[in-house]
Amino acid sequence: MKKATIAKTTSLAVSLGALLCLGLPSNAQAGDYRLRSGSFQVGGSLGFTASIADQTAFALGAEFAYYITDAISIRPRFSFNFDNDFFLFLAMADARYTFDIKNPKVERLKPFVGLGVGAGVIDADGPDNTDAAFVFGLPTGVEYFITQGFSLGTEFDFLFPVGFGDDHFFFQWQVVTARYLF
Looking at residue 161, what DSSP letter applies? Predict the structure, then answer.
């Protein structure tokens, strides 16, 4: 796949995700992790991706979220996974449920689970081996709010592509996530 095509696809996906989030109303108290309903969240992540075919790659991610309720959010997210001879671009739309722990000692800790659907483009061993597929995802993880609006966390994502040749499963671990709630 040509780099110009990947760049155009990436720009379009990021623009559509940002427009989706900007078009939703926000009425929550800005930046309060206890009152998330109506809030937005943006974030980035660093990690790696591994597949059944022994492909391991460095992963960079970006996401935008809108909290429908304090517990339920929708979030377009994107990840770029690459090494010397492998490139994987994922554009996903997730619905997530965030658990509120009522114990005051750990109320800043927010575990979550989700369900996602999206598309992926994989380029393994050069442009003659490029493929695209629908992808289903099961994200899970935890974030810890250091301040009212800023959190650090980690996220695991089990990805099931439909149509990536022999690869029927990818595992993505975003080792470090940083998110800002507003």
Answer: E
